């Protein structure tokens, strides 16, 4: 018999005569302590994310490309990776086109195998969007897509993320329910709550372990 | 790095008592653990500042795990069906050897030479680094702590903080010696060295291996929590991702992970959430530009079904591997993780290891506890660890041939002499006449009690019966009282 059958048979035999424990999930426990007034969501998110070294800037739908260009320039980043076919990627391209002195734009527009070396060794920064955020834990929600792939928010040492203020929700439970995650999950879904970090040596916190060293969030207050 | 340097060479020839004794004499080790555990306990306490919320959440965590276990076979089948629908290949293994065979056959098919591993305790059960190394496949740890202990040919001493037994100076020496880098004790610089070395390995690796924190049956999703990003790297960059996990890690619904993740990260590290919560539901789909082409899940039994068979011991499988029980354990804090000599140290190790390796191999583990109760009190899923330790002590001394047989290696500490003494003790205490005779003898002959009574007198003065028994004095007192009235 197969390992699967052996395991399942053993488990089933052990459960003979028992009834399953009823599902009495108390959603109040995971929502009520983690609910905020609308004007509190940005401060709450900000407090938690800044506590773990995230840089946060408030901006608007109109102004963020200019702010992004400023931040990229200030940090002397030689290039910025974008997802060219997304609406925000398009906006960046437009802004950059009007300002030819800005650092180069790179497009993630082909399978990683075709440019893996460049991605790892010569891609200092990236911009992605988010699906929103969670105020309770200070987390960005990301569902990478074919247009904006998974490694964009992972390999480049500096990660810029766009967040619409209207998409900041209270807690993870609410996110799952309102976005109906149980009906189907993408290849990869992520909660990102700061730049990568570790405390594996003497419990001393160090940032920039394996993922981005810097996470910079642009919150669009009017979006 | 060649294969032979990858083989962990920690010698564990002495028994647990000797290792514990040695650890107690190691001042550096004790200081490293004491300060780390104190800080982890404080962080947890701060993260659960509202006791009311904490206790309700623990009760919910317990209920979710109990519900999952109460339908475990059905949920495993549902998980497999949904993962398969998502394109993930699911494998089942009863033993660590079978699990290793599965991994090796995938590696062979892919002609893999290099494997990069995110943190996975199940892969430690499998001794995957060693097994793949013997096949000529480099299997490198990428969690900073795991990387440090692997570089020093050691094993993790804590399930969350693998290198907690080392201080920065020791890591500095190690990196200087093994990697040939300039000596530095600066933790930021040490981490940057690790990042640089391992980035290249992520880039080159043919296969990424990870563990699983929760496997969601409802959606066919593997959820991993981590801070470093090595878990995301291991599961996204290499062309193949193999996740290995115990059969108990499944939960029914996606919403179940909301309280469990909160309990896990707050109990383990005092963090409201880890930097990354990585939810993987399949390999790269047509049109997607990155992610592994193949995703595999290996479901490992390795003794778990034995714990599952007994309704009390089954609670062991509630565990979500936060490590809070070890952080709060006075024994673990003093002897550290290596003294246990097995993959899982501390209180959870003492109750899970006997199912994996047989009680006869770790007969002293259930006794490595003062039964202070701290582990049970902090457990986020309310495993009654002290009760299970007592239960294993009973299984440990069961007479040979006792049926039903509960676990492999039971009765390994059975002694006819000890059983006889206990039987006599029971008889003595249940027969008033006999007890009176005994008391009389004990008080009258008190001068004859030996000064050396085995292990007891190694650390204590020998017990001497009093001249008069409490019974005797109470009787006299009561007689006097009634005479006064």
From TrEMBL, chain A:
Gene3D superfamilies: NagB/RpiA/CoA transferase-like (3.40.50.10420). It comes from the Bacteria. InterPro entries: FTHF_cligase-like_sf, LUD_dom, NagB/RpiA_transferase-like. Signal peptide: none annotated. Residues 44-220 form the LUD domain. This is Lactate utilization protein C. It comes from Pseudomonas kulmbachensis.
From TrEMBL, chain B:
PROSITE patterns: 4FE4S_FER_1 (PS00198), 4FE4S_FER_2 (PS51379). InterPro entries: 4Fe4S_Fe-S-bd, 4Fe4S_Fe_S_CS, FTHF_cligase-like_sf, Helical_ferredxn, LUD_dom, LutB/LldF, LutB_C, NagB/RpiA_transferase-like. Keywords: 4Fe-4S, Electron transport, Iron, Iron-sulfur, Metal-binding, Repeat, Transport. Residues 449-461 have a biased composition (Polar residues). It comes from Pseudomonas kulmbachensis. Residues 449-468 are annotated as: Disordered. Gene3D superfamilies: Alpha-helical ferredoxin (1.10.1060.10), NagB/RpiA/CoA transferase-like (3.40.50.10420). It holds the Pfam family LutB_C. Residues 309-338 form the 4Fe-4S ferredoxin-type domain. This is LutB/LldF family L-lactate oxidation iron-sulfur protein.
């Amino acid at each position: 018999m197969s390992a699967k059958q052996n395991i399942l048979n053993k488990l089933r035999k052990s459960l003979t005569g028992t009834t399953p424990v009823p599902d009495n999930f108390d959603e109040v426990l995971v929502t009520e302590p983690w609910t905020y007034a609308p004007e509190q969501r940005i401060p709450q998110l900000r407090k938690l994310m800044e506590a773990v070294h995230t840089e946060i800037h408030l901006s608007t739908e109109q102004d963020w490309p200019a702010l992004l260009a400023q931040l990229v320039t200030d940090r002397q980043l030689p290039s910025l990776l974008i997802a060219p076919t997304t609406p925000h990627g398009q906006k960046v391209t437009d802004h950059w086109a009007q300002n030819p002195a800005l650092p180069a734009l790179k497009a993630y527009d082909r399978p990683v195998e075709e440019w893996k070396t460049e991605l790892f060794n010569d891609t200092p920064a990236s911009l992605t969007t988010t699906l929103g955020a969670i105020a309770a834990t200070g987390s960005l929600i990301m569902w990478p897509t074919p247009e904006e792939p998974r490694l964009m928010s992972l390999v480049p040492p500096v990660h810029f993320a766009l967040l619409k203020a209207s998409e900041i929700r209270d807690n993870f439970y609410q996110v799952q329910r309102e976005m109906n995650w149980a009906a189907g999950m993408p290849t990869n879904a992520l909660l990102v709550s700061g730049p990568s970090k570790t405390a594996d040596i003497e419990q001393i916190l160090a940032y920039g372990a394996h993922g981005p060293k810097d996470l910079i969030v642009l919150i669009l207050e009017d979006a | 790095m060649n294969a032979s340097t990858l083989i962990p060479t920690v010698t564990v020839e002495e028994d647990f008592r000797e290792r514990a004794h040695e650890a107690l004499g190691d001042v550096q080790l004790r200081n490293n653990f004491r300060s780390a555990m104190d800080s982890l306990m404080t962080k947890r306490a701060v993260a659960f500042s509202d006791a009311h919320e904490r206790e309700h959440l623990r009760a919910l965590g317990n209920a979710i795990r109990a519900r999952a276990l109460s339908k475990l076979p059905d949920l495993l089948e549902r998980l497999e069906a949904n993962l398969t629908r998502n394109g993930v290949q699911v494998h089942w293994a009863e033993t660590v050897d079978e699990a290793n065979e599965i991994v090796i056959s995938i590696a062979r098919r892919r002609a893999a030479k290099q494997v990069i591993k995110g943190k996975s305790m199940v892969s430690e059960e499998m001794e995957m680094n060693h097994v793949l190394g013997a096949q000529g496949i480099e299997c490198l740890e990428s969690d900073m702590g795991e990387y440090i202990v692997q570089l020093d040919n050691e094993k993790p001493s804590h399930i969350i903080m693998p290198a907690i037994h080392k201080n920065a100076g020791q890591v500095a020496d190690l990196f200087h010696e093994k990697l040939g880098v300039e000596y530095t004790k600066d933790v930021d610089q040490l981490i940057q060295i690790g990042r640089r070395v391992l980035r290249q390995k992520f880039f080159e690796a043919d296969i990424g291996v990870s563990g699983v924190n929760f496997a969601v049956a409802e959606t066919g999703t593997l959820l991993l929590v981590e801070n470093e990003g090595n878990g995301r790297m291991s599961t996204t960059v290499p062309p193949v991702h193999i996740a290995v996990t115990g059969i108990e890690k499944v939960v029914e619904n996606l919403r179940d992970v909301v309280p469990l993740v909160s309990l896990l990260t707050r109990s383990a590290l005092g963090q409201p959430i880890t930097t990354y919560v990585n939810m993987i539901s399949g390999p790269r789909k047509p049109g997607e530009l990155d992610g592994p082409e193949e995703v595999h899940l290996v479901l490992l039994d390795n003794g778990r079904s034995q714990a599952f068979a007994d309704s009390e011991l089954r609670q062991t499988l509630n565990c979500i591997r936060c490590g809070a029980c070890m952080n709060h354990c006075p024994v673990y804090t003093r002897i550290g993780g290596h003294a246990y000599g097995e993959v899982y140290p501390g209180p959870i190790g003492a109750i899970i290891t006997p199912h994996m390796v047989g009680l006869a191999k770790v007969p002293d583990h259930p006794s490595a506890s003062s039964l202070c109760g701290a582990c049970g009190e902090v457990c986020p899923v309310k495993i009654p660890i002290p009760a299970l330790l007592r239960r294993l002590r009973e299984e440990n001394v069961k007479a040979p041939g006792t049926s039903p047989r509960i676990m492999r290696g039971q009765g390994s500490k059975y002694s006819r002499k000890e059983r006889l003494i206990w039987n006599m003790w029971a008889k003595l205490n249940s027969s008033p006449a006999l007890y009176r005779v005994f008391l009389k003898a004990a008080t009258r002959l008190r001068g004859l009690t030996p000064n050396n009574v085995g292990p007891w007198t190694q650390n204590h003065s020998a017990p001497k019966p009093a001249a008069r028994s409490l019974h005797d004095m109470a009787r006299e007192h009561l007689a006097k009282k009634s005479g006064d009235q």
